[in-house]
Amino acid sequence: MEADERRTGRAVAHRPSTEPTVQPSRPAPAAAPTPTRLGARLQRAHAIADLRRQAARRLPKAVFDFIDGGAEDERTLRDNVEAFDDWMLMPRVGIDVATRDLSRSILGYRASLPIMMAPTGLAGFFWPDGEVAGAQAAARAGIPYCLSTNSVGSIEHVAEGAPEGERWFQLYFLRDREWMQALLRRAAAARYRVLCLTVDLAVQGRRERDLRNAFTMPLKPRLSTALDLARRPGWLAGAARSRLGFGNFQAGGFQAGGAAAGHGFTSVAQHVASLFDPSASWDDIARIRDAWRGPMALKGLLHPADAARAVALGIEAVIVSNHGGRQLDDVPAAIHALPGVAEAVAGRAEVILDGGVRRGTDVIKALALGATACSLGRPFLWGLSAGGTAGVSRAIEIVRGELDNAMTLLGTPTLEAITRDHLRPRRGGW
Known about the structure:
Number of domains: 1
CATH architecture: Alpha-Beta Barrel
Distance between the termini: 31 Å
Helix content: 40-55%
Radius of gyration: 21 Å
Order of helices and strands: HHHHHEEEEHHEHEHEHHHHHEHEHEHEHE
Strand order of the largest sheet: 4-11-10-9-8-7-6-5
Largest sheet: 8 strands, parallel
CATH topology: TIM Barrel
Number of helices: 18
Shape: globular
Strand content: 5-15%
CATH superfamily: Aldolase class I
C-alpha cells in the first residue's frame, strides 16, 4: 500500500452434461454520478495511483482493503511494486520512433497492448455487474480478459455481456471434480478461448486486513461497517441492487455452504477451505491439460523447475505470479522471479508477468527481462471501483499512454525492439 502511494483453440471434448443452465441475472443500475461528472473525475486520474485514491474514496474500508491488502506483513505485496526500481532504463538515440507499434500476440490473439486483465475474484462486489464492465472495457481496448472462478457474474452472464471480447477462464482445483469438469464444459460452451489454471491457492494466505475487518460476502453487519457504509451511498446503492454471491457456484445440484450456496455470511477463506482441493498434484494438472481443447496457461509459478515441468506437459504459457502478495508472504517479487523462469522456458512457451505493474515503464522492464506480456489485477480493480467500465478504460488508457511515451523516449518503436540491453541494474554494475 505504501509503495503505491510512493509510485504514482480447441474445444473441450463433448461429454453428456447434467448441470443446469445458469440464467444470467442483470442487476438494476446503481445510483451514480452523471456520466459527465464521472468522466471529468476519471480524466483527473493521470496515473494508476490516482485511480487507487478515487477507489478508496468510493469503497467501504473493508472492501477497499480486500483489493489492496496482502498476506501477513505484506512484504511481498510491497516488494512486487518496489522491485521494479532495481532496474533502470537505458535509452538509445538516432532511431526512427515517429510511429510505434504497441501490439503483441498473446497465445494467438493479437492484442493492442502487451497486457491482459488478470483474474480477480468478486469484481461484481466493487461495481454492479463488475465482471461484465471489465470484460467490456477489455474488449473495446483489444486486450484479453480473464474471468475468475470466484466471480460474482457467472461464466454465461459475462460471455453474454461481452460477446466480442477475447475471454479467458481461470480455474482452481476443486474438491468436487465433477463440478470442476462442469465449469470447463461451461467455459468451452460459452467460447472462452484460453484456460488459466491457478495452482497457488491450496489454502488461502493469511490476509490480516480481511481478518481485522471481518470481511465477508456479503458484508456482515457491524457498527463500524454501518458507519462506513453511511459515508459511501454510491457503493451501497449499487450493492443493494446487485445479486451478490459466487456466481459460478450458484446453480442447482451444487452442495456448498455459505455464500457459495447463496446464503449466510461467508469469508473468502471459508469459501476456499470448503471448496478448494489442497491435494492437487502435477498428475491432476496433466489431466486438465488433456481435457481442455485449447490454449492453456498455468498461473502461480515462481520456481524455474516448475515452469520447465509445465512446458513439458504441453502448457502454452506460464504466468509468473505470487498471487499479488496475497498468499505466502516473503516469497520473491514476481519481477525478480521472471528472469529465471524465462530462462527455464527458453522460448518453448509464453511467459506472462503478474504482480506489481503500476506504470508503462514497468511493462517495458518485464518485456526486457523475458516476458511476453503483463497481467494487471489491482490497477484494473481500482479503475473499476472508481468508475465501472469507464474507469477500467481509463486505467488501460493510462498504461497505453505511459508505454507509448516510454517506448518513444527509449528508442524502441516496437515491442520486439525492447531487449535486455535497455536495462541497467540500479546498483552493482552491469
